[in-house]
Design goal:
There is one protein chain. This protein is of the alpha+beta class. The chain has one domain: Alpha-Beta Plaits. It is built from four helices and five strands; from the N terminus they run E-H-E-E-H-E-E-H-H. Strands 4-1-3-2-5 form a five-stranded mixed sheet, with helices on both faces. A hairpin with a 3-residue loop joins strand 2 (44-49) and strand 3 (53-61). It is globular. The termini are far apart. The structure holds flavin mononucleotide. The site of flavin mononucleotide (FMN) has 16 residues, from helix 1, strand 3 and helix 2. Pfam families: BLUF.
């Protein structure tokens, strides 16, 4: 099996009703499943969301990314899944996270605006590099905040 690492970046439209605790519960379930499955096949990455859409970066071997993305695409908790990037990488940027949740903190709203992930965002403005870089930066900022 090839050891070459790849990065996959996509965005999608949220289809989970955002009322009461249902949205939170659904996100918790997605994260729990993702962390369990991704740990098993050495996939790492990060997920960002708001009421309107998800953005996700996945890193790992090609065959593991393809199998994971196949399942993700068939999940009706989101739709219009759009692949932004699938490219070979030298090393992982999310090596410590089987699936990090970015921007769970309310104070991150302004950072979300910078990539148009607030409501009314236009996905055609996003590209894979941009989404990947912002997720990585936000995650490091959150870690620094939590460490204070
Ligand atoms: C936005 C979003 C992101 C997801 N990310 C992952 C992921 O990184 N890894 C994963 O295995 N499943 C992920 N899922 C869940 C899959 O769509 C699917 O439900 C799950 O992989 C099925 O796992 P199971 O066969 O072990 O029940 C995601 C779902 C959504 C809606």
């Amino acid at each position: 099996m090839s050891k070459q690492l790849y990065r996959l970046v996509y965005y999608s439209r949220n289809r989970i009703a955002k009322d009461g605790n249902d949205f939170r519960t659904a996100i918790e379930q997605i994260l729990a499943t993702s962390r369990e499955n991704n740990s098993r096949c050495d996939v790492t990455g990060a997920l960002i969301f708001n009421a309107g859409c998800f953005g996700q970066v996945l890193e790992g071997r090609l065959e593991d990314l393809e199998a994971t993305f196949e399942r993700i695409q068939q999940d009706d908790r989101h739709g219009d899944v759009s692949l932004l990037a699938m490219e070979p990488i030298e090393h992982r940027h999310f090596a410590r996270w089987s699936m990090a949740l970015v921007s769970a903190l309310p104070s991150d709203d302004s950072a979300l605006t910078s990539i148009g992930l607030q409501s009314g965002f236009d996905p055609s403005n996003l590209n894979g590099d941009e989404l990947h870089s912002v997720l990585h930066r936000l995650l490091l900022e959150e870690e620094a905040l939590l460490a204070q």
